[in-house]
Design goal:
Length: about 30
């Protein structure tokens, strides 16, 4: 899952673009 740009949708509905290789703990708390 190597992407040039990783797009995350935060819990508040905001979209955050992060460089590939950055691990977001918030994304693991989804669900």
């Amino acid at each position: 899952m190597n992407k040039v740009l990783q797009v995350e949708v935060m819990w508040d509905g905001s979209v955050v673009g992060r460089p590939a290789g950055v691990i977001s703990i918030k994304s693991s708390k989804k669900g």
